[in-house]
Design the sequence.
């Protein structure tokens, strides 16, 4: 178990290092190619959203399967490592980048105006809350606390999808 935690800590450290290097590169782009930075920010924002949503779709599926394992079993321990690495190495950095570049785009492109943008930001706040709920659940599973059933996680699995639909409709159609 200690080897798995150590490997998870190393993966988290590598992910955070990569995130910092990436942000430094973005700062370089901002300084040396300011005319195109908005387009770079949009591209980075889209990539971060894709990575974040992939994790948001996958994590509750891991919880579905984890909920049906015996605490302390080899499969339960494997799910703990998978959940930890998904959260710390993919979901958290992707959410951070999504927020940083999304707020930049909202300011630079729209000055935070437009009803569609307000609804989108609200939906992203709710999505961030779901992310936090998944983070709490990951910690509960790590402590072998099983307070929710596999059925619960199958239902919760739909929340990121519903929020994504709202966000995409707001961005593409800008209905108000």
Sequence:
């Amino acid at each position: 178990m200690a080897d798995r935690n150590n490997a998870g800590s190393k993966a988290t450290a590598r992910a955070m290092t990569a995130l910092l290097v990436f942000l430094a590169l973005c700062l370089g782009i901002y300084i040396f190619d300011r005319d195109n930075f908005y387009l770079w920010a949009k591209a980075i924002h889209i990539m971060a959203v894709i990575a974040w949503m992939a994790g948001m779709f996958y994590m509750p599926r891991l919880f579905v399967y984890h909920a049906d394992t015996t605490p302390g079993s080899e499969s339960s321990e494997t799910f703990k490592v998978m959940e930890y690495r998904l959260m710390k190495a993919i979901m958290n950095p992707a959410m951070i980048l999504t927020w940083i570049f999304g707020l930049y785009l909202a300011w630079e492109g729209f000055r935070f105006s437009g009803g569609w943008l307000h609804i989108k930001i609200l939906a992203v706040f709710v999505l961030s809350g779901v992310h936090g709920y998944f983070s709490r659940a990951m910690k509960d599973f790590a402590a072998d606390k099983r307070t929710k059933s596999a059925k619960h996680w199958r239902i919760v699995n739909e929340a990121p999808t519903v929020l994504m639909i709202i966000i995409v409709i707001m961005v593409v159609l800008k209905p108000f």
Observations:
- The mean pLDDT is 94.
- The helical segments are 2-32, 37-67, 74-110, 115-142, 150-156, 159-173.
